[in-house]
């Protein structure tokens, strides 16, 4: 998850990448996404990966997958993820994602496990998080 | 839904994040971060024990700082402490920190493992899930060792919750991928298969992922899963989409279905054809999906159509993978065709990509071709470069003889406006298509010249080499090519210039009178690059040979100050050498030295190799994946300009050495004129090669593989630095040729290049042989790490002794001084008959650069011939005994050498058999007999050679008691005449 200024807002790796290489990778990835115009398609071939991205206001969500993955499904998954965030934060803005990093991580962990999409039902994704919130309130 | 407050309880974190956001500059931000880091450090170091909440807060801050791209080198301990907390949030943050920041080989792993173990044993499903997630995220070997046995138990335990099962399955998948040896197979595997019937979709998809991976390694264990998977798939897909739509209605995302289909796709190879029922269900299911995709959209929402399309694409890829149902393939193709004009760019892109794979299937190739106009249109009008690239890929894939002309011309037209990024690739593709589907060569030449005119700068050297190879090999097009080149030469400059000269170099043309040709060539001389000029000079010297009337003009050109005193060493040297050559040498010498290039041996197109290289692993489309051949890149090793491994000697030192006596070790007489040409270019062998400049490489590329070619060494596909002793490169291209020279003789020069000469002396008796190899260092520099080794092909790993030949070698000294010769003795014992000769791999370091090449050792089965004399009567009796068809091998072939009875006799004797006179009624014919001696068995062998002087043909017949031996001997001997 990167904003238009190229600052990473959230990143998650499902394969080990050296910590100092991550920044470089992220910069390159976002650069290639930013350089594209609206009328271009949302898939980019990058090294051995395919990048699939969607833009929401100033925020880019980029997913890198290998070539066995279904591009369209990932494309929709991104939207699904944003919908979940939207539901949880009731009208999500990028600020909220920053301030609630841990929550976003929980949501992502509920949806993606070890690089596989495991849950897409909004209610089920948010259930554990809502229980937590209730606990901390009481 | 409760509105979530900022920071939700962690005020400190929220303040910190807002501070960072408010920072005006990068420096201020770093300052703020450093301050916070110092703060956290002191808090962690402080005496006061922190409560769980503040630990959580600080660890969170560290996470955020890490996210901003700063290195975090502390706090791991606190995170590990959080793991043992009882509060979910604290535990969760701890795990989060560990999975984001701890890498596989941290020394903290043991502590973390302990915490995980406790959580796994806790029976609290949320904690277990967290622990499993953590194992999956880190996935290190230590973790695998600690938990590989536990996880399968959790996975199949009856009382595990769904979410735990799901996590356990994926966790196991990760561990299995990381270190398969750690995951024990056992009775749990059978129960995993039944997870496919689970009610919970998450468990099912997770199980599918796991099973797919396990299947690859142990297909037998998972046979049962296929029918289960297919029936599950049909249950999801078929019941008039009730289930599917229901799930959609719940805001449920269909990607699981897509995954599902995808995974089944990978299971398909395990579906054996006899499972007709399963297959039928699968096909039916796929059809339903295709039908559903045709239905008008139920809702206007874009997500729904996207979801539907995701399923469709997955289905299509399953169909493609299945690749045996023509109906489905054609339907898929038609449905994709509709997408080609869809207004969504994404869909157009994916449709083109899937079509590309469809085009490679024999069933749907024709169907894909019907969309050619749409695709061409896409290529022209598409606004997105990546979509255009896909369109070009598809055109390439769908091209065949019937539409090649149209496609190539469209691609050429597109090239004029193409994006720079994809130009080179298109150029390569056009070149390949033009060559592959060329009907007549004039079309080919026109196309290529057009290509060069349009995209001159993007035409790589490989394309040129290939064109030249083809033109050289086809006499009939040479004239046309040269003519066209001359006619269009005005607009051709730069790169194209080089090719033009080379064409002229190869092709004497009757189009213009020689002086006109020459003046045309020379008029552009001063505009050309150094490399081109060097070639041009070579062209001139060839002109002198072919058209003596131009001699005076050319000599004048060569003599001109701008050549003889050229600043460029290469040009200067060429000018001097050629000038002297033209004035000193007689016409005969000139004719030999400058003989026309012989045709090239056919081999894989270098362009194809380049395209493959360009695609790179993983990046290519599935089409290329299918056709990729890992070794193909090596075949054209000689094309790549190899970095110079030889230092350039002082240029003036040996300029006149050209006319010195022939090189100290005269090359074998059979070496062709091409070798001499190389020698001329490089100076005599006594002088180390000039640094191979690109055009030198170019020239030697044009040469047929010759033993003396300096590039033979460099072109050897083993340029890797110091390969291990185990891997022996393939023999050099001319190894077979070299071997043939030794079929009928035992002594001679086996191999020679600029650095090294290898001589052979050998003697054979019965099944034993002794061979002396003499390695002569031709340079003045010591060779380091000199190690020749003998290997029997196909037996690289095992020791020589287990092969058909037992070869004992003595080690030679690792250093060979400049000008010195070392000797190696090989004792050879033939244990049983064999077809392939052993390989001799020589590697050493010359001036720091590793050199390696592999030759075929001149040991062929006929070396173990024992001549047998016998009377005519005996001969015919035995001949009749060996009358089974497979015992006889016969070959009729054209004579390659003059048919001289004495020479033939000598060759047959050298081959090893006894010559029997007065056996054949026709005195012209030769009859021989012998026994091949091996330790295991003896193979009796009779041969008959019938020359036909009128037709310049031979008929060779061999009869032996062992079938492969007959054929092998026949082939060996046939090459000698």
From TrEMBL, chain A:
Its main location: membrane. One of its GO terms (cellular component) is endomembrane system. InterPro entries: AP_complex_ssu (IPR016635), AP_mu_sigma_su (IPR022775), Longin-like_dom_sf (IPR011012). The keyword Membrane applies. Residues 2-135 form the AP complex mu/sigma subunit domain. GO terms for biological process: intracellular protein transport. The keyword Repeat does not apply. Keywords: Membrane, Protein transport, Transport. It is a peripheral membrane protein. It is found in: Endomembrane system. Adaptor protein complex 4 (AP-4) is a heterotetramer composed of two large adaptins (epsilon-type subunit AP4E1 and beta-type subunit AP4B1), a medium adaptin (mu-type subunit AP4M1) and a small adaptin (sigma-type AP4S1). Component of the adaptor protein complex 4 (AP-4). Adaptor protein complexes are vesicle coat components involved both in vesicle formation and cargo selection. They control the vesicular transport of proteins in different trafficking pathways. AP-4 forms a non clathrin-associated coat on vesicles departing the trans-Golgi network (TGN) and may be involved in the targeting of proteins from the trans-Golgi network (TGN) to the endosomal-lysosomal system. Belongs to the adaptor complexes small subunit family. This is AP complex subunit sigma. It comes from Rhinopithecus bieti.
Automatic annotation (TrEMBL), chain B:
It is a peripheral membrane protein. It comes from the Eukaryota. GO terms for molecular function: clathrin adaptor activity; heme binding; peroxidase activity. Residues 641-660 have a biased composition (Low complexity). It is found in: Cell membrane; Membrane, Coated pit. PROSITE patterns: PEROXIDASE_4 (PS50873). Residues 610-670 are annotated as: Disordered. GO terms for cellular component: AP-2 adaptor complex; endolysosome membrane. Residues 513-817 form the Plant heme peroxidase family profile domain. Component of the adaptor protein complex 2 (AP-2). Adaptor protein complexes function in protein transport via transport vesicles in different membrane traffic pathways. Adaptor protein complexes are vesicle coat components and appear to be involved in cargo selection and vesicle formation. AP-2 is involved in clathrin-dependent endocytosis in which cargo proteins are incorporated into vesicles surrounded by clathrin (clathrin-coated vesicles, CCVs) which are destined for fusion with the early endosome. Adaptor protein complex 2 (AP-2) is a heterotetramer composed of two large adaptins (alpha-type subunit AP2A1 or AP2A2 and beta-type subunit AP2B1), a medium adaptin (mu-type subunit AP2M1) and a small adaptin (sigma-type subunit AP2S1). This is AP-2 complex subunit alpha. It comes from Rhinopithecus bieti. The gene is AP2A1.
């Amino acid at each position: 998850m990167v904003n238009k200024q190229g600052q990473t807002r959230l990143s998650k790796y499902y394969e080990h990448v050296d910590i100092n290489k991550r920044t470089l990778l992220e910069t390159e990835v976002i650069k290639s996404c930013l350089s594209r115009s609206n009328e271009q398609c949302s898939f980019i071939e990058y090294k051995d990966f395919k990048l699939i991205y969607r833009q929401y206001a100033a925020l880019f969500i980029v997913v890198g997958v290998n070539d066995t993955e279904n591009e369209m499904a990932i494309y929709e998954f991104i939207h699904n993820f944003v919908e979940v965030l939207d539901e949880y934060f009731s009208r999500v803005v990028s600020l909220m994602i920053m301030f609630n990093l841990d929550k976003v991580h929980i949501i992502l962990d509920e949806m993606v496990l070890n690089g596989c999409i495991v849950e897409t039902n909004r209610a089920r994704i948010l259930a554990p998080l809502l229980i937590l919130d209730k606990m901390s309130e009481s | 839904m409760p509105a979530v407050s900022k920071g939700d309880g962690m005020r400190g974190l929220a303040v910190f994040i807002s501070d960072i956001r408010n920072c005006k500059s990068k420096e201020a931000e770093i300052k703020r971060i450093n301050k916070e880091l110092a703060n956290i450090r002191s808090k962690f170091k402080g005496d006061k024990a922190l409560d769980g909440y503040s630990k959580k807060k600080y660890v969170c801050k560290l996470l955020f700082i890490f996210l901003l791209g700063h290195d975090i080198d502390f706090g791991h301990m606190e995170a590990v402490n959080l793991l043992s907390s009882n509060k979910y949030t604290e535990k969760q943050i701890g795990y989060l920190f560990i999975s984001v920041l701890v890498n596989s080989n941290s020394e903290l792993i043991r502590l973390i493992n302990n915490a995980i173990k406790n959580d796994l044993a806790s029976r609290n499903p949320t904690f277990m899930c967290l622990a499993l997630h953590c194992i999956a995220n880190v996935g290190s070997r230590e973790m695998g060792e600690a938990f590989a046995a536990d996880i399968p138990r959790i996975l199949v335990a009856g009382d595990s919750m769904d979410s735990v099962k799901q996590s356990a399955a994926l966790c196991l998948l990760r561990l299995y991928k990381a270190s398969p040896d750690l995951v024990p197979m056992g009775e749990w595997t059978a129960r995993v298969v039944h997870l496919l019937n689970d009610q919970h979709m998450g468990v099912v998809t997770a199980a599918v992922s796991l099973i797919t991976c396990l299947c690859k390694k142990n297909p037998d264990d998972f046979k049962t899963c296929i029918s289960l998977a297919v029936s599950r798939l049909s249950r999801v897909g078929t019941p008039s989409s009730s289930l599917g739509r229901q799930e959609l209605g719940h805001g449920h995302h269909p990607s699981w279905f897509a995954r599902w289909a995808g995974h089944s796709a990978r299971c398909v190879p395990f579906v054996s054809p006899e499972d007709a029922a399963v297959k039928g269900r699968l096909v039916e299911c796929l059809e339903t999906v295709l039908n559903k995709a045709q239905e008008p959209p139920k809702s206007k929402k874009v997500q729904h159509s996207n979801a539907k399309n995701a399923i469709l694409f997955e289905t299509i890829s399953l169909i493609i993978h299945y690749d045996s149902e023509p109906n489905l393939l054609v339907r898929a193709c038609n449905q994709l065709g509709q997408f080609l004009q869809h207004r969504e760019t994404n869909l157009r892109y994916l449709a083109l990509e899937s079509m590309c794979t469809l085009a490679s299937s024999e069933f749907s190739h024709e169907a894909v071709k019907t969309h050619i106009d749409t695709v061409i249109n896409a290529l022209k009008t598409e606004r997105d470069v990546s979509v255009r690239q896909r369109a070009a890929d598809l055109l390439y894939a769908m091209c065949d003889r019937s539409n090649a002309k149209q496609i190539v011309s469209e691609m050429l037209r597109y090239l004029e406006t193409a994006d720079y990024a994809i130009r080179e690739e298109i150029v390569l593709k056009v070149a390949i298509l033009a060559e592959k589907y060329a009907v007549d060569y004039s079309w080919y030449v026109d196309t290529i010249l057009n290509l060069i005119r349009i995209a001159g700068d993007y035409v790589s050297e490989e394309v040129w080499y290939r064109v030249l190879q083809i033109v050289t090999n086809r006499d009939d097009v040479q004239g046309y090519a040269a003519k066209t080149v001359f006619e269009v030469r005005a607009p051709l400059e730069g790169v194209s210039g080089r090719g033009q000269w080379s064409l002229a170099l190869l092709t004497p043309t009757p189009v213009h009178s020689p002086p006109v040709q020459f003046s045309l060539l020379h008029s552009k001389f001063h505009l050309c690059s150094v490399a081109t000029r060097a070639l041009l000079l070579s062209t001139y010297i060839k002109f002198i040979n072919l058209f003596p009337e131009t001699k005076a003009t050319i000599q004048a050109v060569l003599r001109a100050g701008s050549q003889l005193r050229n600043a460029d060493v290469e040009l200067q040297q060429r000018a001097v050498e050629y000038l002297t050559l033209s004035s000193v040498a007689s016409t005969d010498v000139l004719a030999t030295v400058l003989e026309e290039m012989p045709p090239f041996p056919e081999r894989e197109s270098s362009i194809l190799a380049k395209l493959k290289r360009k695609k790179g692993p993983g990046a290519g489309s599935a089409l290329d994946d299918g056709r990729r051949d890992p070794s193909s890149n090596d075949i054209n090793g000689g094309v790549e300009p190899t970095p110079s491994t030889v230092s350039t000697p002082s240029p003036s030192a040996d300029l006149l050495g050209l006319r010195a006596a022939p090189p100290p070790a005269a090359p074998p007489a059979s070496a062709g004129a091409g070798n001499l040409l190389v020698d001329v270019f490089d100076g005599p062998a006594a002088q180390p090669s000039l640094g191979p400049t690109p055009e030198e490489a170019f020239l030697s590329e044009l040469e047929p593989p010759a033993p003396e070619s300096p590039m033979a060494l460099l072109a050897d596909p083993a340029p890797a630095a110091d390969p291990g002793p185990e891997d022996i490169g393939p023999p050099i291209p001319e190894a077979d040729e070299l071997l043939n020279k030794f079929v009928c003789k035992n002594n001679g020069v086996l191999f020679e290049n600029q650095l090294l000469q290898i001589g052979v002396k050998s003697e054979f008796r019965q099944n034993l042989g002794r061979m002396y190899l003499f390695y002569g260092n031709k340079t003045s520099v010591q060779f380091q790490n000199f190690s020749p080794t003998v290997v029997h092909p196909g037996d690289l790993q095992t020791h020589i002794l287990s092969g058909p030949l037992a070869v004992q070698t003595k080690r030679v000294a690792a250093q060979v001084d400049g000008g010195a010769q070392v000797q190696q003795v090989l004792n050879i014992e033939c244990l049983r008959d064999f077809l392939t000769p052993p390989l001799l791999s020589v590697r050493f370091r010359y001036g720091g650069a590793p050199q390696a090449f592999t030759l075929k050792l001149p040991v062929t089965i006929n070396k173990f011939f024992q001549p047998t004399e016998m009377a005519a009567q005996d001969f015919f009796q035995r001949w009749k005994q060996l009358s089974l068809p497979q015992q006889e091998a016969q070959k009729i072939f054209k004579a390659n050498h003059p048919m001289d009875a004495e020479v033939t006799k000598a060759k047959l004797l050298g081959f090893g058999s006894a010559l029997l006179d007065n056996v054949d009624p026709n005195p012209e014919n030769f009859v021989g007999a012998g026994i091949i001696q091996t330790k295991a068995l003896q193979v009796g062998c009779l041969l008959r050679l019938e020359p036909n002087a009128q037709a310049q043909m031979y008929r060779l017949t061999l009869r032996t008691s062992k079938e492969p031996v007959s054929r092998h001997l026949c082939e060996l001997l046939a090459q000698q005449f």
